[in-house]
Amino acid sequence: MLGNFCYSNPTKLYFGENALEYLTDELKHYGTVVQLVYGSGSIKKSGLYDQVVAILKACGKTIVEDSGVMPNPTVEKLYQGCKLAKENQVDFILAVGGGSVCDYAKALSVSAWCEEDPWDKYYLRMEDVSNKIIPVGCILTMVGTGSEMNGGAVITNHAQKLKIGHVFGENVFPKFSILNPKLTYTLPKYQMVAGIYDIMNHITEQYFSGEDDNTTDYLAEGLMRSLIHSSRVAVQNPEDYEARSNIMWTATWALNTLLAKGKATDWMVHMIGQSVGAYTDATHGMTLAAVSLPYYRMICPYGLQKFKRFATNVWDVLPNGKTDEQIAAEGLQRMKEWMQEIGLVLNIQELGVTEDMLEGIAQGTFLLDGGYKVLTKQDVVEILKQSMQGE
Length: 391
Ligand code: NZQ
Ligand code: ZN
Description:
Layout: E1 12-15, H1 23-27, E2 33-38, H2 42-46, H3 48-58, E3 62-66, H4 75-87, E4 92-97, H5 99-111, H6 118-124, E5 136-140, E6 152-157, E7 162-167, E8 176-179, H7 189-207, H8 215-236, H9 241-254, H10 268-280, H11 284-299, H12 304-313, H13 324-342, H14 358-363, H15 377-388
Parallel strand pairs: 1-8, 2-3, 2-4, 4-5, 5-8
Antiparallel strand pairs: 6-7
Helix pairs in contact: 4-5, 7-8, 7-9, 7-11, 8-9, 10-11, 11-13, 11-15, 12-13
The protein binds 5,6-dihydroxy-NADP and zinc ion.
Protein backbone atom coordinates (compact mmCIF):
# COMPACT_ATOMS: atom_id res chain seq x y z
CA MET A 1 0.00 0.00 0.00
CA LEU A 2 1.60 3.22 -1.12
CA GLY A 3 -0.82 6.04 -0.38
CA ASN A 4 -0.99 8.48 2.54
CA PHE A 5 -4.40 9.10 4.03
CA CYS A 6 -6.62 10.01 6.93
CA TYR A 7 -9.48 7.68 7.72
CA SER A 8 -12.54 8.56 9.72
CA ASN A 9 -16.26 7.96 9.23
CA PRO A 10 -18.71 9.91 11.35
CA THR A 11 -21.93 8.01 10.50
CA LYS A 12 -23.35 5.94 13.34
CA LEU A 13 -25.02 2.77 12.05
CA TYR A 14 -27.77 0.77 13.69
CA PHE A 15 -28.06 -2.61 12.01
CA GLY A 16 -30.59 -5.41 12.46
CA GLU A 17 -34.24 -6.31 12.80
CA ASN A 18 -34.79 -3.94 15.72
CA ALA A 19 -32.70 -1.05 14.46
CA LEU A 20 -35.67 1.34 14.23
CA GLU A 21 -35.93 1.30 18.02
CA TYR A 22 -32.91 3.59 18.16
CA LEU A 23 -34.54 6.38 16.17
CA THR A 24 -36.08 7.93 19.29
CA ASP A 25 -32.69 8.29 21.01
CA GLU A 26 -31.11 9.80 17.92
CA LEU A 27 -33.89 12.33 17.35
CA LYS A 28 -33.26 13.81 20.79
CA HIS A 29 -30.04 15.39 19.50
CA TYR A 30 -31.83 17.57 16.93
CA GLY A 31 -34.36 20.42 16.81
CA THR A 32 -38.11 20.21 16.52
CA VAL A 33 -38.79 20.70 12.81
CA VAL A 34 -38.08 17.58 10.75
CA GLN A 35 -38.30 17.43 6.96
CA LEU A 36 -39.46 13.87 6.26
CA VAL A 37 -38.11 12.91 2.86
CA TYR A 38 -39.32 9.84 0.98
CA GLY A 39 -40.11 8.46 -2.46
CA SER A 40 -43.23 7.54 -4.31
CA GLY A 41 -45.09 5.34 -1.91
CA SER A 42 -43.22 2.11 -1.14
CA ILE A 43 -42.87 3.15 2.52
CA LYS A 44 -46.59 3.79 2.80
CA LYS A 45 -47.37 0.37 1.36
CA SER A 46 -44.96 -1.40 3.70
CA GLY A 47 -46.24 0.38 6.81
CA LEU A 48 -42.86 1.95 7.55
CA TYR A 49 -44.22 5.45 7.00
CA ASP A 50 -46.79 5.02 9.80
CA GLN A 51 -44.15 3.66 12.16
CA VAL A 52 -41.77 6.55 11.50
CA VAL A 53 -44.48 9.20 11.79
CA ALA A 54 -45.61 7.69 15.11
CA ILE A 55 -42.04 7.91 16.45
CA LEU A 56 -41.62 11.50 15.23
CA LYS A 57 -44.89 12.52 16.87
CA ALA A 58 -44.03 10.75 20.11
CA CYS A 59 -40.79 12.74 20.11
CA GLY A 60 -42.75 15.99 19.75
CA LYS A 61 -41.45 16.79 16.28
CA THR A 62 -43.19 18.96 13.71
CA ILE A 63 -43.19 17.10 10.41
CA VAL A 64 -42.59 18.83 7.10
CA GLU A 65 -43.62 16.31 4.43
CA ASP A 66 -41.34 16.10 1.39
CA SER A 67 -42.53 13.14 -0.69
CA GLY A 68 -42.11 12.11 -4.32
CA VAL A 69 -38.33 11.90 -4.49
CA MET A 70 -37.92 10.05 -7.76
CA PRO A 71 -35.26 7.48 -8.62
CA ASN A 72 -32.33 9.56 -9.95
CA PRO A 73 -33.49 12.73 -8.15
CA THR A 74 -33.71 15.84 -10.29
CA VAL A 75 -32.44 19.33 -9.78
CA GLU A 76 -36.03 20.65 -10.00
CA LYS A 77 -37.03 18.45 -7.06
CA LEU A 78 -34.00 19.76 -5.18
CA TYR A 79 -35.10 23.37 -5.71
CA GLN A 80 -38.58 22.53 -4.35
CA GLY A 81 -37.09 20.83 -1.30
CA CYS A 82 -34.88 23.84 -0.61
CA LYS A 83 -37.93 26.11 -0.62
CA LEU A 84 -39.71 23.84 1.88
CA ALA A 85 -36.68 23.65 4.15
CA LYS A 86 -36.18 27.40 4.21
CA GLU A 87 -39.83 28.35 4.64
CA ASN A 88 -40.19 25.96 7.55
CA GLN A 89 -36.78 26.65 9.11
CA VAL A 90 -36.10 22.91 9.15
CA ASP A 91 -33.75 21.61 11.88
CA PHE A 92 -33.26 18.07 10.67
CA ILE A 93 -33.81 15.99 7.51
CA LEU A 94 -34.95 12.39 7.90
CA ALA A 95 -34.57 10.33 4.70
CA VAL A 96 -36.63 7.14 4.47
CA GLY A 97 -35.93 5.19 1.30
CA GLY A 98 -33.18 4.13 -1.07
CA GLY A 99 -30.08 5.80 -2.40
CA SER A 100 -32.10 8.38 -4.31
CA VAL A 101 -33.86 9.55 -1.16
CA CYS A 102 -30.64 9.57 0.89
CA ASP A 103 -28.69 11.35 -1.87
CA TYR A 104 -31.44 13.94 -2.25
CA ALA A 105 -31.49 14.52 1.51
CA LYS A 106 -27.76 15.21 1.50
CA ALA A 107 -27.99 17.50 -1.51
CA LEU A 108 -30.84 19.32 0.22
CA SER A 109 -28.85 19.62 3.43
CA VAL A 110 -26.14 21.68 1.70
CA SER A 111 -28.41 23.49 -0.75
CA ALA A 112 -31.23 24.85 1.41
CA TRP A 113 -29.13 27.73 2.73
CA CYS A 114 -26.91 28.09 -0.32
CA GLU A 115 -27.21 31.58 -1.76
CA GLU A 116 -26.19 30.55 -5.25
CA ASP A 117 -27.72 27.96 -7.56
CA PRO A 118 -26.65 24.68 -5.91
CA TRP A 119 -26.46 22.89 -9.28
CA ASP A 120 -23.91 25.39 -10.56
CA LYS A 121 -21.95 25.52 -7.31
CA TYR A 122 -21.81 21.84 -6.29
CA TYR A 123 -22.30 19.98 -9.55
CA LEU A 124 -20.86 22.09 -12.33
CA ARG A 125 -18.13 23.92 -10.40
CA MET A 126 -17.64 21.14 -7.78
CA GLU A 127 -17.13 23.65 -4.98
CA ASP A 128 -17.15 22.84 -1.27
CA VAL A 129 -19.96 23.86 1.05
CA SER A 130 -19.59 27.31 2.57
CA ASN A 131 -23.02 27.75 4.18
CA LYS A 132 -25.12 26.22 6.94
CA ILE A 133 -25.67 22.44 6.59
CA ILE A 134 -28.87 20.84 7.89
CA PRO A 135 -28.07 17.49 9.56
CA VAL A 136 -29.42 14.29 7.92
CA GLY A 137 -30.41 10.86 9.23
CA CYS A 138 -31.34 7.86 7.03
CA ILE A 139 -33.60 4.87 7.30
CA LEU A 140 -32.56 2.65 4.40
CA THR A 141 -35.04 0.56 2.39
CA MET A 142 -33.04 -0.26 -0.76
CA VAL A 143 -29.52 -1.62 -0.77
CA GLY A 144 -26.74 -0.75 -3.18
CA THR A 145 -25.46 2.79 -3.24
CA GLY A 146 -23.71 3.03 0.13
CA SER A 147 -25.31 6.46 0.48
CA GLU A 148 -26.18 5.56 4.08
CA MET A 149 -22.55 5.99 5.14
CA ASN A 150 -20.93 8.32 2.65
CA GLY A 151 -21.02 11.89 1.38
CA GLY A 152 -22.22 11.10 -2.14
CA ALA A 153 -25.22 12.94 -3.58
CA VAL A 154 -26.01 12.31 -7.24
CA ILE A 155 -28.39 14.73 -8.96
CA THR A 156 -29.77 14.59 -12.51
CA ASN A 157 -30.33 17.63 -14.70
CA HIS A 158 -32.47 16.46 -17.61
CA ALA A 159 -32.42 19.82 -19.38
CA GLN A 160 -28.63 19.73 -19.52
CA LYS A 161 -28.56 15.93 -20.03
CA LEU A 162 -26.14 15.54 -17.14
CA LYS A 163 -26.18 13.23 -14.13
CA ILE A 164 -23.44 14.22 -11.72
CA GLY A 165 -22.33 13.03 -8.29
CA HIS A 166 -20.72 15.32 -5.76
CA VAL A 167 -18.86 13.52 -2.99
CA PHE A 168 -19.17 15.84 -0.02
CA GLY A 169 -17.01 15.74 3.08
CA GLU A 170 -17.65 14.26 6.49
CA ASN A 171 -19.79 17.21 7.55
CA VAL A 172 -22.41 16.05 5.04
CA PHE A 173 -22.37 12.30 5.85
CA PRO A 174 -25.58 11.10 7.53
CA LYS A 175 -25.36 11.58 11.30
CA PHE A 176 -26.88 8.13 11.71
CA SER A 177 -28.35 5.42 9.50
CA ILE A 178 -30.82 2.70 10.40
CA LEU A 179 -30.39 -0.56 8.49
CA ASN A 180 -32.96 -3.31 8.89
CA PRO A 181 -32.48 -6.00 6.22
CA LYS A 182 -36.16 -6.95 6.49
CA LEU A 183 -37.13 -3.54 5.12
CA THR A 184 -35.58 -4.63 1.82
CA TYR A 185 -37.81 -7.73 1.40
CA THR A 186 -40.48 -5.74 -0.46
CA LEU A 187 -38.08 -4.60 -3.21
CA PRO A 188 -39.01 -5.85 -6.68
CA LYS A 189 -36.43 -8.33 -7.98
CA TYR A 190 -35.32 -5.87 -10.67
CA GLN A 191 -34.34 -3.33 -8.00
CA MET A 192 -32.76 -5.94 -5.77
CA VAL A 193 -30.44 -7.25 -8.46
CA ALA A 194 -29.68 -3.75 -9.76
CA GLY A 195 -28.57 -2.90 -6.22
CA ILE A 196 -26.47 -6.06 -6.04
CA TYR A 197 -24.64 -5.09 -9.21
CA ASP A 198 -24.19 -1.53 -7.95
CA ILE A 199 -22.37 -3.01 -4.94
CA MET A 200 -20.27 -5.30 -7.13
CA ASN A 201 -19.29 -2.41 -9.32
CA HIS A 202 -18.43 -0.11 -6.42
CA ILE A 203 -15.95 -2.79 -5.40
CA THR A 204 -14.50 -3.38 -8.86
CA GLU A 205 -14.17 0.37 -9.47
CA GLN A 206 -11.78 0.42 -6.52
CA TYR A 207 -10.13 -2.93 -7.28
CA PHE A 208 -9.15 -2.48 -10.94
CA SER A 209 -6.48 0.14 -10.41
CA GLY A 210 -2.89 0.26 -9.25
CA GLU A 211 -0.21 -2.41 -9.23
CA ASP A 212 0.92 -2.14 -5.59
CA ASP A 213 0.24 -4.83 -2.99
CA ASN A 214 -2.73 -3.29 -1.22
CA THR A 215 -4.85 -4.34 1.78
CA THR A 216 -7.89 -3.00 -0.04
CA ASP A 217 -7.60 -5.59 -2.78
CA TYR A 218 -7.77 -8.44 -0.29
CA LEU A 219 -10.75 -6.84 1.45
CA ALA A 220 -12.40 -6.30 -1.93
CA GLU A 221 -11.97 -9.95 -2.91
CA GLY A 222 -13.60 -11.08 0.35
CA LEU A 223 -16.51 -8.67 -0.12
CA MET A 224 -17.02 -9.79 -3.73
CA ARG A 225 -17.02 -13.49 -2.75
CA SER A 226 -19.58 -12.82 -0.03
CA LEU A 227 -21.74 -10.78 -2.40
CA ILE A 228 -21.69 -13.39 -5.17
CA HIS A 229 -22.66 -16.12 -2.72
CA SER A 230 -25.40 -14.12 -1.00
CA SER A 231 -26.82 -12.81 -4.27
CA ARG A 232 -27.39 -16.37 -5.47
CA VAL A 233 -29.19 -17.23 -2.24
CA ALA A 234 -31.28 -14.02 -2.29
CA VAL A 235 -32.38 -14.49 -5.90
CA GLN A 236 -33.70 -17.95 -5.00
CA ASN A 237 -35.23 -16.81 -1.72
CA PRO A 238 -35.61 -13.03 -1.29
CA GLU A 239 -36.62 -13.51 2.35
CA ASP A 240 -33.42 -15.27 3.38
CA TYR A 241 -32.44 -12.97 6.24
CA GLU A 242 -28.83 -14.09 6.34
CA ALA A 243 -28.28 -13.37 2.64
CA ARG A 244 -30.15 -10.04 2.70
CA SER A 245 -28.25 -8.88 5.77
CA ASN A 246 -24.89 -9.84 4.25
CA ILE A 247 -25.78 -7.96 1.07
CA MET A 248 -26.83 -4.91 3.08
CA TRP A 249 -23.62 -4.84 5.11
CA THR A 250 -21.44 -5.48 2.04
CA ALA A 251 -23.09 -2.52 0.29
CA THR A 252 -22.14 -0.23 3.14
CA TRP A 253 -18.53 -1.40 3.21
CA ALA A 254 -18.25 -1.22 -0.56
CA LEU A 255 -18.66 2.54 -0.54
CA ASN A 256 -18.12 4.01 2.90
CA THR A 257 -14.69 5.35 1.87
CA LEU A 258 -12.65 2.55 3.47
CA LEU A 259 -11.75 0.66 0.29
CA ALA A 260 -10.51 3.75 -1.50
CA LYS A 261 -7.92 4.54 1.14
CA GLY A 262 -4.29 4.22 0.11
CA LYS A 263 -4.87 3.38 -3.53
CA ALA A 264 -5.87 4.69 -6.93
CA THR A 265 -9.46 4.08 -8.04
CA ASP A 266 -11.07 3.82 -11.45
CA TRP A 267 -14.81 4.82 -11.53
CA MET A 268 -15.13 4.81 -15.34
CA VAL A 269 -18.06 2.35 -15.37
CA HIS A 270 -19.92 4.82 -13.17
CA MET A 271 -18.99 7.75 -15.39
CA ILE A 272 -20.36 5.98 -18.49
CA GLY A 273 -23.35 4.55 -16.59
CA GLN A 274 -24.28 7.96 -15.22
CA SER A 275 -24.23 9.48 -18.68
CA VAL A 276 -26.47 6.65 -19.90
CA GLY A 277 -28.72 7.51 -16.95
CA ALA A 278 -28.83 11.19 -17.91
CA TYR A 279 -30.20 10.20 -21.34
CA THR A 280 -32.55 7.39 -20.28
CA ASP A 281 -33.34 7.84 -16.57
CA ALA A 282 -32.69 4.08 -16.30
CA THR A 283 -32.07 2.29 -13.00
CA HIS A 284 -28.54 3.07 -11.83
CA GLY A 285 -27.31 -0.49 -11.24
CA MET A 286 -28.59 -1.63 -14.65
CA THR A 287 -26.74 1.16 -16.45
CA LEU A 288 -23.54 -0.10 -14.83
CA ALA A 289 -24.26 -3.73 -15.67
CA ALA A 290 -24.91 -2.92 -19.32
CA VAL A 291 -21.59 -1.17 -19.92
CA SER A 292 -19.27 -3.15 -17.62
CA LEU A 293 -18.28 -6.11 -19.75
CA PRO A 294 -17.30 -4.14 -22.87
CA TYR A 295 -15.39 -1.71 -20.65
CA TYR A 296 -13.52 -4.40 -18.74
CA ARG A 297 -12.66 -6.28 -21.92
CA MET A 298 -11.23 -3.06 -23.36
CA ILE A 299 -9.00 -2.30 -20.36
CA CYS A 300 -8.07 -5.90 -19.54
CA PRO A 301 -4.81 -5.93 -21.55
CA TYR A 302 -3.62 -2.83 -19.61
CA GLY A 303 -4.29 -4.37 -16.19
CA LEU A 304 -3.78 -7.99 -17.08
CA GLN A 305 -2.25 -9.12 -13.79
CA LYS A 306 -5.16 -7.71 -11.78
CA PHE A 307 -7.72 -9.30 -14.11
CA LYS A 308 -5.87 -12.60 -13.71
CA ARG A 309 -5.99 -12.23 -9.94
CA PHE A 310 -9.72 -11.36 -10.15
CA ALA A 311 -10.32 -14.57 -12.11
CA THR A 312 -8.50 -16.84 -9.68
CA ASN A 313 -9.29 -15.17 -6.33
CA VAL A 314 -12.89 -14.13 -6.93
CA TRP A 315 -14.18 -16.60 -9.53
CA ASP A 316 -12.01 -19.64 -8.68
CA VAL A 317 -10.69 -19.98 -12.22
CA LEU A 318 -8.01 -22.70 -12.29
CA PRO A 319 -4.86 -21.30 -13.89
CA ASN A 320 -3.21 -24.57 -14.86
CA GLY A 321 -2.02 -24.74 -18.47
CA LYS A 322 -3.58 -21.40 -19.44
CA THR A 323 -2.04 -18.13 -20.53
CA ASP A 324 -2.60 -15.00 -18.45
CA GLU A 325 -4.94 -13.71 -21.14
CA GLN A 326 -7.00 -16.90 -21.07
CA ILE A 327 -7.28 -16.81 -17.27
CA ALA A 328 -8.35 -13.16 -17.28
CA ALA A 329 -10.92 -13.78 -20.03
CA GLU A 330 -12.34 -16.74 -18.14
CA GLY A 331 -12.81 -14.55 -15.05
CA LEU A 332 -14.83 -12.04 -17.04
CA GLN A 333 -16.80 -14.87 -18.64
CA ARG A 334 -17.72 -16.19 -15.17
CA MET A 335 -18.76 -12.70 -14.11
CA LYS A 336 -20.97 -12.51 -17.22
CA GLU A 337 -22.58 -15.87 -16.39
CA TRP A 338 -23.30 -14.68 -12.85
CA MET A 339 -24.78 -11.45 -14.20
CA GLN A 340 -27.07 -13.40 -16.51
CA GLU A 341 -27.97 -15.83 -13.74
CA ILE A 342 -29.20 -13.13 -11.37
CA GLY A 343 -31.04 -11.26 -14.14
CA LEU A 344 -29.05 -8.13 -14.96
CA VAL A 345 -29.44 -6.08 -18.13
CA LEU A 346 -26.41 -6.44 -20.40
CA ASN A 347 -27.55 -4.36 -23.36
CA ILE A 348 -28.11 -0.60 -23.16
CA GLN A 349 -30.88 -0.82 -25.78
CA GLU A 350 -33.03 -2.49 -23.13
CA LEU A 351 -32.56 0.69 -21.07
CA GLY A 352 -33.78 2.91 -23.89
CA VAL A 353 -30.50 3.87 -25.55
CA THR A 354 -30.71 4.44 -29.31
CA GLU A 355 -27.94 4.88 -31.87
CA ASP A 356 -28.46 8.65 -32.11
CA MET A 357 -27.68 9.07 -28.38
CA LEU A 358 -24.21 7.51 -28.46
CA GLU A 359 -22.19 10.64 -29.25
CA GLY A 360 -24.06 12.64 -26.62
CA ILE A 361 -23.59 9.95 -23.97
CA ALA A 362 -19.87 9.88 -24.75
CA GLN A 363 -19.69 13.69 -24.58
CA GLY A 364 -21.45 13.63 -21.18
CA THR A 365 -19.01 11.03 -19.80
CA PHE A 366 -16.31 12.46 -17.55
CA LEU A 367 -12.97 10.82 -18.40
CA LEU A 368 -10.95 9.95 -15.31
CA ASP A 369 -7.35 8.79 -15.10
CA GLY A 370 -7.23 6.47 -12.06
CA GLY A 371 -7.77 3.18 -13.89
CA TYR A 372 -5.64 1.07 -16.21
CA LYS A 373 -6.36 3.04 -19.37
CA VAL A 374 -7.43 6.63 -19.92
CA LEU A 375 -10.34 6.38 -22.34
CA THR A 376 -11.01 8.66 -25.26
CA LYS A 377 -14.53 9.74 -26.20
CA GLN A 378 -14.21 7.36 -29.16
CA ASP A 379 -13.45 4.49 -26.75
CA VAL A 380 -16.66 5.32 -24.89
CA VAL A 381 -18.63 5.21 -28.14
CA GLU A 382 -17.05 1.83 -28.89
CA ILE A 383 -18.04 0.47 -25.45
CA LEU A 384 -21.60 1.69 -25.97
CA LYS A 385 -21.74 0.10 -29.43
CA GLN A 386 -20.55 -3.21 -28.04
CA SER A 387 -23.18 -3.08 -25.34
CA MET A 388 -25.80 -2.46 -28.06
CA GLN A 389 -24.71 -5.57 -29.87
CA GLY A 390 -25.80 -7.41 -26.76
CA GLU A 391 -24.22 -10.08 -24.71
O1 NZQ B 1 -39.90 5.77 -4.47
P1 NZQ B 1 -40.28 4.52 -3.78
O2 NZQ B 1 -41.73 4.27 -3.77
O3 NZQ B 1 -39.68 4.40 -2.41
O4 NZQ B 1 -39.68 3.31 -4.67
C1 NZQ B 1 -38.30 3.04 -4.80
C2 NZQ B 1 -37.76 3.35 -6.20
O5 NZQ B 1 -38.78 3.26 -7.16
C3 NZQ B 1 -38.11 1.55 -4.71
N1 NZQ B 1 -37.91 1.09 -3.34
C4 NZQ B 1 -36.98 1.47 -2.45
N2 NZQ B 1 -37.07 0.73 -1.34
C5 NZQ B 1 -38.10 -0.14 -1.54
C6 NZQ B 1 -38.64 0.08 -2.80
N3 NZQ B 1 -39.67 -0.62 -3.29
C7 NZQ B 1 -40.19 -1.58 -2.51
N4 NZQ B 1 -39.69 -1.87 -1.28
C8 NZQ B 1 -38.64 -1.18 -0.77
N5 NZQ B 1 -38.15 -1.52 0.42
O6 NZQ B 1 -36.93 1.28 -5.43
C9 NZQ B 1 -36.80 2.22 -6.49
C10 NZQ B 1 -35.37 2.64 -6.61
O7 NZQ B 1 -34.95 3.35 -5.48
P2 NZQ B 1 -33.65 4.26 -5.56
O8 NZQ B 1 -33.50 4.94 -4.25
O9 NZQ B 1 -33.69 5.09 -6.79
O10 NZQ B 1 -32.49 3.18 -5.78
P3 NZQ B 1 -30.98 3.20 -5.36
O11 NZQ B 1 -30.83 2.91 -3.92
O12 NZQ B 1 -30.28 2.32 -6.31
O13 NZQ B 1 -30.49 4.72 -5.60
C11 NZQ B 1 -30.11 5.17 -6.88
C12 NZQ B 1 -29.54 6.56 -6.85
O14 NZQ B 1 -28.35 6.63 -6.05
C13 NZQ B 1 -27.27 7.19 -6.84
C14 NZQ B 1 -27.66 6.74 -8.23
O15 NZQ B 1 -26.97 7.46 -9.22
C15 NZQ B 1 -29.14 7.01 -8.24
O16 NZQ B 1 -29.41 8.38 -8.47
N6 NZQ B 1 -25.97 6.72 -6.32
C16 NZQ B 1 -25.52 7.23 -5.15
C17 NZQ B 1 -24.26 6.94 -4.67
C18 NZQ B 1 -23.72 7.49 -3.41
N7 NZQ B 1 -24.47 8.23 -2.63
O17 NZQ B 1 -22.56 7.28 -3.09
C19 NZQ B 1 -23.32 6.09 -5.40
C20 NZQ B 1 -23.98 5.25 -6.43
O18 NZQ B 1 -22.99 4.85 -7.35
C21 NZQ B 1 -25.10 5.90 -7.16
O19 NZQ B 1 -24.61 6.73 -8.19
ZN1 ZN C 1 -23.15 3.04 -8.00
